[in-house]
Design a protein that fits this description.
The complex is a heterotetramer, with two copies of chain A (about 200 residues) and two copies of chain B (about 200 residues). Chain A is mainly alpha-helical and about 200 residues long. In chain A, the strands form two sheets. Chain A has a two-stranded parallel sheet with strand order 1-4. A two-stranded parallel sheet of chain A has the order 2-3. Chain A is globular, with a radius of gyration of 19 Å. Chain A has eleven helices and four strands. The N and C termini of chain A lie far apart (about 40 Å). Chain A has helices at about 10-25, 35-45, 50-60, 65-70, 75-80, 115, 120-125, 125-130, 135-140, 180-185, 190, and strands spanning about 90-95, 100-105, 155, 165. Chain B is an alpha+beta fold and about 200 residues long. Chain B is about 35% helix and about 10% strand. Chain B is built from eight helices and three strands. Chain B has helices at about 30-40, 50-55, 60-65, 70-80, 90-95, 110-120, 170-175, 195; strands at about 135-140, 160-170, 185-190. The longest helix of chain B has 15 residues, at about 70-80. The chains are: A mainly alpha (about 200), B alpha+beta (about 200). Chains in contact: A-B, A-C, A-D, B-C, B-D, C-D. Chains A and B meet through helix 1, helix 2, helix 7, helix 8 and helix 9 of A and helix 1, helix 2, helix 3, helix 4 and helix 6 of B.
Chain lengths: ~200, ~200, ~200, ~200
């Protein structure tokens, strides 16, 4: 029987294709493989959503920092050492009783690397990019998130060089927690807006 | 351009498939694709706007069936070819036919940290005052250029309210085509869901 | 729906490739695909509107990479499955699991000529008078249903002039979904190129 | 080296896929292979663009018929015996010094089968469907047709069950020709609007 293809190129095709290109570039002296290793190391182990979780936890525990984050996210986040590529211009959007924020890039894959690392596959894929702006409730349902009926949703489409960090609502039951403990419960998805931060003891 | 990348509001792509936070790469080639793309960017042949346009200019069927790192690699091949660094013949044969043009700009490992940490800010001074202020009602233009634009199709000829005036920024529509940065005022404009998607839309959007 | 089929004004598909007039099929399977599609239509399970919607509902990457007869066959498989005639399991195994539901409607060769010559007119009586007359300026609505519609995206929320009042016709938006023919007045509306595509457009369009 | 794929399924895949479906349908008694043969025979040999060419040639030579065609194309065309599927409701659009007409179906493949037969591949493909409405001059150039600058173009998008036949301009140098001879120079593409009818002696 005929079969349905998935993505056009198989895994092995892409492995060969990328290797061939890297080999040419190295032979031409345009790329240093050790620099590629260093880039990978950076985003595999150093720059990731734990950065953003630290920002959120601090905003939850320090009113002054939260205000700063609200009014100049670029500077407030830079003060914690999180600067650089795809985080040059930051905006923090705060969830609250009256609004839920959701971030998407309909046109490509813009994402706040400095605080969240590399975007997950779904963030860059047509299902999310097409529906987040038109049917955010339906998308949230696929992440297991049900918002109260009629709760306003604001969707931020990252079409300019401004990157958005969602500051989720702090769950009840975390009174007195220190920032490190709070950061542990802040998920990547909650900072994109596709998850809420679960109260301690809730099922994940 | 009205390309395959302009996905906001399109239909038929099926459900979103969430993924755990600790999945970063699906195979080594994705990691190498990331590194290659950033390392080649350091050669300075193109801007981020030109690279975005190279991605959205892939054939639509390819764009929509490829994973995002595959999109990156295909666009990188196109950019390297356009700027004379790697020809299609070299890609086909795997054999060098000419030396690299800018080996002196090759990104070295010791510079990776500082280059990534510096990023590439795109705020610029604009010599004229902003045309709009927070709270102004504005209507987007019917822009459908063949080239790059960051106005999504769903927000074309729509009325919204200026929510923030961000300052001057590089204008991608010219910068993507080597026509200069032409800094413009950047605004955040809020649209209501029913204004974008029709009267049947969730009024809380 | 805002599906892959809504191609008017999209970009990036490359040049048109003309073809001689005497090329009708590219291989026997295209001829069989045509015949199968028409013969299955005679079973009466679906309307032409439902079959169009089945085609536009294919995954966008499939729709844009497939030839048109492949689109027809994939949609035909979906329609036969939806209406209980051929299951996915039967397609996968090639083995019958249930008899056909409507063998009595099987199109016989001696009826082919009369069925094709009769066609399927879609004009209907509408019990209300037409709302518009020739020469009226009208504005299309912002219709973006999840289901079938024959309003192309490029002509949404645009102003044009009624050029002809065609009479009452089946309304595809309901008929495609088994919700009845709901006959409506059909108008030919002329739009100016710059109104659709922006100020830079050929004014003679 | 990795290779670029063309259409998703190869020729052989589709041959197998269609054959498998036909076999199932025949076994279920839902399809008679001889009826399929008869359908193919109809569109391979009986219903094609020579029908439309006869309509055009008659319109060029009989003023009364041209008027009828202009005002009730469905009836005028039916009077010549061309009726049926995908030609139930017809409109004839006349080219002239002040207008060039071009027909497309941006949403699918609607086409006047009764007068033109089955549509060519390009008519059903994304390049034509996407560009005919926005850049008809560019499309015409790819067919080798250059219209005078500023000549108005009307593009007919077949989104309803109304099918359009373009009546091209009769070329100079054909005075006195009988309808059969005229029909011979009327091409399929000229009745879609992607070609002009060449004057006798012109290169095709």
């Amino acid at each position: 029987m005929p079969h349905d293809h998935g993505p056009d190129n198989s895994f092995d095709d892409m492995t060969a294709r990328v290797k061939a290109l890297e080999t040419l570039l190295v032979e031409k002296g345009l790329v240093d493989p050790a620099a590629i290793d260093a880039i990978i190391e950076t985003y595999a182990h150093k720059v990731g959503p734990r950065n953003g979780a630290a920002v959120v936890a601090r905003a939850w525990t320090e009113t002054d920092f939260a205000d700063w984050l609200r009014h100049d996210a670029t500077a407030a986040i830079a003060s914690m050492g999180f600067t650089g590529r795809q985080g040059e211009h930051m905006e923090a959007v705060f969830n609250g009783p009256d609004v839920h924020n959701l971030v998407v890039c309909t046109l490509c894959s813009c994402y706040p690397w400095t605080v969240l690392g590399l975007p997950p596959v779904w963030y860059k894929s047509p299902p999310y990019r097409s529906r987040a702006v038109r049917d955010p409730r339906g998308v949230l349902a696929e992440f297991g998130v049900g918002l109260p009926e009629g709760k306003p949703i604001r969707v931020w489409d990252s079409t300019a060089e401004l990157r958005y960090l969602v500051v989720p609502e702090r769950p009840a039951g975390t009174e007195g927690w220190d920032p490190a403990r709070l950061a542990d419960i802040v998920t990547r998805d909650s900072m994109i807006g596709t998850a809420l931060v679960a109260a301690p003891g809730d099922a994940p | 351009m009205n390309g395959p990348h302009d996905l906001g509001g399109r239909m038929g792509f099926g459900p979103v498939v969430p993924e755990p936070e600790d999945v970063i790469f699906h195979g080594d080639w994705e990691a190498r694709a990331l590194g290659l793309t950033l390392a080649c960017g350091a050669l300075g042949h193109w801007t981020i706007d030109e690279s975005r346009h190279a991605r959205e200019s892939l054939p639509p069927a390819t764009y929509l069936s490829a994973s995002y790192y595959e999109i990156w690699i295909r666009a990188l091949e196109a950019l390297l070819e356009r700027h004379g660094e790697v020809s299609a013949a070299e890609r086909a044969s795997g054999k060098l036919e000419a030396p690299g043009l800018r080996p002196e700009r090759c990104l070295r490992p010791e510079r990776v940290r500082s280059v990534l940490a510096a990023g590439g800010p795109t705020d610029r001074r604009v010599p004229v005052p902003a045309a709009f202020a927070v709270g102004d009602r504005v209507r987007t233009r019917n822009l459908q250029p063949e080239g790059h634009t960051r106005l999504p199709g769903f927000a074309r000829e729509k009325t919204g309210v200026v929510e923030a005036v961000r300052g001057g920024f590089v204008y991608p529509d010219t910068n993507a085509h080597g026509a200069g940065e032409m800094p413009c005022w950047l605004y955040t404009v809020a649209f209501r869901g029913p204004d974008l998607w029709g009267a049947d839309t969730d009024p809380a959007l």
